[in-house]
Write a structure and sequence with these properties.
By secondary structure, the protein is α+β, with helices and mostly antiparallel strands. The chain has 5 helices and 10 strands. The strands form 5 sheets. The chain has a two-stranded antiparallel sheet with strand order 1-2. A two-stranded antiparallel ribbon has the order 3-4. The longest helix has 14 residues. It is globular. It starts with a strand and ends with a helix.
Length: 133
């Protein structure tokens, strides 16, 4: 998602948006802790040590070596350890914790679509398809 603020002296910024738990029904989104891009470059989002470990650890579930490498690179670029970010979309299903947007492959996106059609919530389907498919 892209947003700008007239009061920033013309500096636009972008930040990833994540859906809230009810977004499937309402389409609501909220800003995540993803890095903000300014005219001067990326500013990594501050997250707790625990959140950072979850973000880096979830990369091992990415579908391919390329996606695993990209995930790790993106986490290193977009986040840094500092204060806990309560706005970061973290969730745990089936004993696995993840935070933020997941790098789903086409196969995993299809899995999510099928799971949601079968009655699973989108948030749970994303995690389960990412980790177990």
């Amino acid at each position: 998602m892209t947003g700008g603020c007239g009061g920033t002296g013309g500096t636009a910024f972008t930040a990833a948006a994540v859906t809230t738990g009810t977004a499937g029904a309402t389409g609501e989104t909220r800003a995540s802790a993803a890095a903000v891009t300014t005219g001067e470059g990326r500013i990594p989002a501050e997250v707790s040590g625990e959140q950072y470990r979850i973000l880096t650890g979830q990369c091992r579930y990415a579908d391919t070596a390329e996606l695993r490498e990209r995930c790790a690179r993106d986490v290193g670029r977009d986040y840094r350890v500092g204060e806990r970010d309560d706005a970061l979309d973290c969730r745990t299903y089936s004993g696995v914790s993840v935070c933020g947007p997941l790098p789903l492959s086409e196969r995993e996106r299809q899995c999510v679509t099928e799971a949601v059609a079968g009655g699973m919530t989108a948030r749970r389907a994303e995690v389960e398809c990412y980790v177990f498919s």
